[in-house]
Design brief:
Elements lengths: L24 H22 L8 H20 L3 E3 L4 E3 L9 E9 L2 E5 L4 E6 L6 E2 L4 E5 L2 H37 L4 H34 L1 E3 L4 E6 L6 E2 L4 E6 L4 E7 L12 E6 L2 E13 L10 E6 L11 E6 L8 E2 L5 E3 L2 E8 L2 E9 L9 E5 L6 E3 L10 E5 L2 H6 L12
Parallel strand pairs: 1-23
Antiparallel strand pairs: 2-22, 3-12, 3-16, 4-11, 5-7, 5-10, 6-9, 7-8, 9-11, 12-15, 13-14, 13-16, 14-15, 17-21, 18-19, 19-20, 20-21, 20-23
Helix pairs in contact: 3-4
Length: 422
């Protein structure tokens, strides 16, 4: 019988030898993992000095310090103008609280119909200037003229009756002195004279009333001003008390503001109010509190405050305005949102220190919803200078130079909103 080992192997060279039993795959992977861990431990041991200090972290720290120093030294000098800085404590934006309201004319007349009639003519329209006593609206006076004529005729008749009664009284008085008439006849004549006189006085009153009604058919301007609202047109029926036209004096403008109930306690007559009017925010006006209402508004529960404004051309009654009341006591420093740098939950500002700029931490109170400013609780003092809108320009410890007014103007630097500041 043939031995199987004597047969040649197919597909295998004759000189190949047969290996022993193969190792399991799990054992091979375990041995590879232990070899890698051994190399790693040897590498870490080689990085330690005898004293236990790590060489790699120290080298990395030295490299970072060198790079930071090089960035500060390599950064160019930062050129700043006055429009780029906020001086804490100046501007008054954070000192006090904001009040809102509108401009109103101090002198205003709502002219209404004093007689019931039909509008014949309207001589002035909205926006036209008027002089005192100038005719604005003419009402129909035909009926009133008839009443006047009747009253005047009654006055003439009463006057003739009085004259006749007076002559009769004088004759009887002479006759009674001669004993030719009785005392009773004289007294009756005196009564008739007094009645005639009363009728004459009543007739004169009716004439005066009719003339007054006739004058009221002509609506005239009570003072020099401007027609602000025309409420009727020719042909309209104007009942008694109907509003016809409104006249205002544009030179007498005041600021009617409203404050919350919790702020009334800190408000006093004579306090300064910085008012910015819609459309001319760049030129604020300085007003003073003239009156504080004693009763709050029924709907809003706010208290009305009247602020006197200086005479200034261009103020239009009805425009929206916003004022900042100067609070009594220490100033409240505040920052605009553009000046605050956020890093996580920390708030910082770029503060000028001598001729360099550096990041400085600050603690801020909740943002004022009306002014949009962040009140400063700590970290800044009055007089500190910070960058208004730093952006990404500054570098820690970077040198700064201040431009002169001439150079700043030529550079075209635009000043930011004057309300942004402490």
């Amino acid at each position: 019988m043939m031995n199987l080992h004597d047969l040649p192997s197919r597909g295998r060279p004759a000189h190949a030898c047969t290996l022993g039993p193969r190792l399991p795959q799990g054992l091979i992977r375990l041995l590879g993992f232990l070899a890698v861990m051994g190399v790693a431990v040897a590498g870490l041991a080689g990085c330690q000095r005898p004293g236990g200090e790590s060489v790699a972290p120290r080298a990395a720290g030295a490299t970072g310090a060198a790079s930071g120093s090089g960035a500060s030294a390599a950064a160019p000098t930062l050129s700043l103008g006055s429009e780029d800085l906020l001086v804490m404590g100046q501007g008054g934006a954070g000192a006090g609280w904001v009040v809102t309201g509108s401009l109103q004319a101090e002198r205003r007349a709502d002219l209404r119909a004093e007689v019931g009639s039909v509008v014949l003519r309207v001589l002035k329209d909205n926006g036209e200037r008027v002089r005192r006593g100038e005719l604005l609206i003419k009402l129909d006076d035909a009926t009133i003229r008839d009443s006047l004529a009747s009253a005047e005729e009654s006055e003439r008749a009463a006057l003739r009756s009085l004259e006749g009664a007076e002559r009769q009284y004088q004759r009887l008085k002479s006759l009674q002195a001669q004993g030719m008439t009785s005392q009773q006849a004289l007294e009756d004549s005196e009564v008739r004279r007094n009645l005639a006189n009363s009728e004459r006085v009543a007739a004169q009153a009716r004439v005066a009333a009719a003339r007054q009604q006739l004058e009221r058919t002509e609506v005239r301007a009570p003072f020099d001003g401007v027609v602000s609202a025309r409420k009727v047109s020719a042909g309209d029926t104007a009942g008694l008390g109907k509003e016809l036209v409104q006249v205002i004096d544009p030179s007498s403008v005041r600021f009617d503001a409203f404050v919350a109930a919790e702020q009334v306690a800190g408000l006093q007559v004579g306090q300064t109010v910085t008012v910015r009017v819609q459309g001319r925010e760049a030129t604020p006006l300085q007003g003073r509190v003239r009156r504080i209402d004693a009763v709050a508004q029924p709907l809003t529960r706010q208290v009305a405050v009247i602020v006197d404004l200086p005479a200034s051309a261009g103020l239009i009654p009805g425009l929206y305005a916003e004022g900042v009341v100067a609070a009594q006591g220490p100033k409240v420093l505040a920052l605009p949102d553009t000046a605050v740098v956020r890093r996580g939950e920390q708030a910082l500002v770029w503060r000028l220190q001598a001729d360099t700029v550096a990041l400085h931490p600050v603690q801020l109170a909740p943002r004022d919803a009306r002014s949009g400013l962040w009140p400063v609780v700590s970290g800044l003092a009055e007089g500190d200078r910070v960058l208004r809108a730093p952006g990404s320009r500054p570098v820690e410890g970077q040198k700064v130079t201040m431009r002169t007014t001439t150079s700043a103007t030529s550079a075209g630097g635009a000043s930011a909103n004057p309300r942004q500041g402490g």
